[in-house]
Amino acid sequence: MTKTNFTSLDVEGHDGSTGGLYIGGTLVTATAAELNNSTDFGTTQTVATNTAITVKNGVALLTTAGALTTTLALPVSGTDDFKRLRILDASGQAHTVAIATTGFGGGGANFIKATFSGIIGDSLNLIAYAGIWYVTGVHQVTFGVA
Amino acid sequence: MTKTNLTSVDVDTLYLGGVAVTATAAELNKSFDYEYELLATTPVAPSIKNGVIRIAKTSAGVVTATLAPPVAGTDDFKRLNIINFQTQTNLLIVTEGFGGAGSGEDTCTFTNVLGSSIELMAYNGHWYITGQNNVGVA
């Protein structure tokens, strides 16, 4: 099989609908932005102080011997859509993650603060859409008022 | 639009419509290249690390599945969806504990309901629970 090598290749006509990159004759309908938001696992933020979680696509690893009080900004509608953030407890503390009054999933006042149970491995898994962090799965995390 | 056909392409940096694809081939593969495994015997050790596992023993009885820890780095962000496909209280054991939590968090027990499930993600040598339906972890 002949393989063609390119240092840099731009499939300029790729728009995710009418033309662009084909694989085995099938058009790839995902755009570069969609591929990046869905599959670029991004960076890991080690959170060791009471601070803001700034990573939006990747892992926030909660460490420290004491419970952390952290905050998480809302995602940007459009730009951040479909980014996935996994917040993992690596220290076994009752960490908290607070969000704006919109709340997780847009649930409002009763879903502003997520509290980890204090066991290593607890997790809060989120997907961004239209300016809201939606919960896709949790392990031993509860939600409540601020 | 003119279409150019290539049998095999190796691209150092790919752009689509002028936007760089920053996801690596490894990340794309972990996101989309899923495998499937059926656990039909007991005890058993699942062999796949990225995909869907169904637990369905051919005769009645509980399956005890022991899942090896993922490799830090290499396996990071791989995901397993493990689904109970029989009405048994099947067991999934991760010896070092989910998230590396140790003995108090090392056993997932499925309720004896079809469709009970757990989702795991590999990160830094541990399996983290990222979702669950009708399971207990102790």
Description:
The complex is a heterodimer of chains A (146) and B (138). Chain A is mostly beta strands. Helix content of chain A is 5%, strand content 42%. Chain A has one helix and 13 strands, in the order βββαββββββββββ. At the A-B interface, β1, α1, β8 and β12 of A face β1, β2, α1, β9 and β10 of B.
Secondary-structure map:
The complex is a heterodimer of chains A (146) and B (138).
Chain A: E1 3-11, E2 22-23, E3 26-27, H1 32-39, E4 43-47, E5 52-53, E6 58-62, E7 69-72, E8 84-89, E9 96-99, E10 113-116, E11 123-129, E12 132-139, E13 141-144
Parallel strand pairs in A: 4-6, 5-7, 6-8, 7-9
Antiparallel strand pairs in A: 2-3, 8-11, 9-10, 10-13, 11-12
Chain B: E1 8-16, E2 19-20, H1 25-32, E3 35-39, E4 51-55, E5 64-66, E6 79-84, E7 91-93, E8 107-110, E9 117-123, E10 126-133, E11 135-137
Parallel strand pairs in B: 3-4, 4-6, 5-7
Antiparallel strand pairs in B: 1-2, 6-9, 7-8, 8-11, 9-10
In a few lines, what is going on in this structure?
Chain A is mostly beta strands and 146 residues long. Helix content of chain A is 5%, strand content 42%. Chain B is built from 1 helix and 11 strands.
Key phrases:
heterodimer; A: 146 residues; mainly beta; Jelly Rolls; 5-stranded mixed sheet; 1 helix; 13 strands; B: 138 residues; 4-stranded mixed sheet; 6% helix; elongated
